[in-house]
Fold this sequence. Notes:
4 helices; alpha+beta
Amino acid sequence: MTIEWIISRTSVLIFLLAIPMGAIFLQIYLSKKNSKWPGLILPAITFAFSLLTVMGMVAFVEVGTHTTSHYIDGVWVTTLITDRQAIPGAIWGAIYTFHLMNIPTAILLAIYKGVRIECNRRREIEKMSVQDL
């Protein structure tokens, strides 16, 4: 291992850690806005990506079909066979993928909820202090 190799691997690791940290800081910043809608932008984006992933699985994965060829009376006959037992496995795979891809959505929504609760609590305290005067 050379020093260049270590530096290149370290810079890749720092870059890969900077993306989620930047998203978290951006989510906190957007959640602190007076309107509730900016804080829901990043969770909506991650939810849309999870839907695209599952739709891609459904669209591009051929589930439970295969062909067989038989030589019958001097002619090759090809038959398409659908294995219906593979369909529940594909459904469970899509459900698993959907839940796995929504982990960032859940984290971003938890950050949103926590920041909004704190901001609402702070506004209520400010209202009470103004009323006390």
